C-alpha cells in the first residue's frame, strides 16, 4: 500500500486540543470536525488540504486529551498519512483504531518541508521526498495492520471478518 501527496508541516507538541478544538466536540459529524481541523494552529489548513495530502510534524504529535475526534478530523479532511518524529501513545492507538496511517520517522519529519511532494510505501517503510529526491526509512506496516487500515479501522476490520 502506498500513498502520496503534498506535505503540510508543523512543529513539536501539536496537541489534540489544537488538532480539533474542544468547542467543536459536541458534534458526532466527522465532516464538520474536518472543517475545523487544526484551525487554532493554522486557520487555512482545512481549506488548503487536498485528499491524499500528508501531515508532517515533530515530536509528541497528538499529545493531550485521549479523544478519537483528533485523528478522525485529520482523516476526514483528506490526509492520507501522518509522519512525525514521535507520537503520543494514545493518539497513536486512536489513529490506528480509526484507520489513519501514521509513521514515526524523525529524519523525515526534520527534512520534509511544507509543499514538498511526499510518498510513503507502507510495505517497505520507505518515505520519499519526491521534491528533493531524499529517502527515509521507517518500520514497514505488517500485513495485518495494512488490512486494518484498508478496512477503515479496527471496528470495520472486525465487522468485515464476521
Uncertain residue segments: none
Overall shape: globular
- Strand proportion, as a percent range, falls in 15-25%
> What's the rounded overall pLDDT mean?
94
Oligomer: single chain
Task: Supply Rg.
Answer: 15 Å
What is the string of SSEs from the N terminus onward? EHHHEHEHEHEEEHH
What is the annotated CATH architecture?
Alpha-Beta Barrel
CATH fold assignment: Aconitase, domain 4
Describe the main β-sheet briefly: 7 strands, mixed
Helix-and-strand structural type: alpha/beta
Count all strands and give the number.
7
Give the CATH H-level superfamily. Aconitase, domain 4
Please state how the strands of the largest beta sheet are arranged side by side. 4-3-2-1-5-6-7
Tally of individual domains? 1
- Highest-level CATH class: Alpha Beta
Termini separation (Å)? 24 Å
Count, helices: 8
Question: Would you give an account of this structure?
Answer:
By secondary structure, this protein is an alpha/beta fold. The chain has one domain (2-161): Aconitase, domain 4, CATH 3.20.19. Helix content is 34%, strand content 20%. The protein has eight helices and seven strands; from the N terminus they run βαααβαβαβαβββαα. The chain has a seven-stranded mixed beta sheet.
Amino acid at each position: 500500500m502506498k500513498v502520496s501527496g503534498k506535505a503540510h508541516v508543523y512543529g513539536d507538541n501539536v496537541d489534540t486540543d489544537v488538532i480539533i478544538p474542544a468547542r467543536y466536540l459536541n458534534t458526532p459529524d466527522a465532516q464538520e470536525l474536518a472543517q475545523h481541523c487544526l484551525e487554532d494552529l493554522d486557520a487555512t489548513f482545512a481549506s488548503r488540504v487536498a485528499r491524499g495530502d500528508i501531515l508532517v510534524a515533530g515530536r509528541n504529535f497528538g499529545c493531550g486529551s485521549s479523544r478519537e475526534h483528533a485523528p478522525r478530523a485529520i482523516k476526514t479532511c483528506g490526509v492520507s498519512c501522518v509522519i512525525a518524529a514521535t507520537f503520543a501513545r494514545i493518539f497513536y492507538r486512536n489513529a490506528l483504531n480509526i484507520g489513519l496511517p501514521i509513521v514515526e520517522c524523525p529524519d523525515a519529519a526534520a527534512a520534509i518541508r511544507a509543499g514538498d511532494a511526499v510518498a510513503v510505501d507502507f510495505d517497505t517503510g520507505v518515505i520519499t521526498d519526491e521534491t528533493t529526491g531524499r529517502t527515509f526509512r521507517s518500520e514497514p506496516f505488517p500485513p495485518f495492520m495494512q488490512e486494518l487500515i484498508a478496512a477503515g479501522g479496527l471496528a470495520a476490520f472486525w465487522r468485515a471478518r464476521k
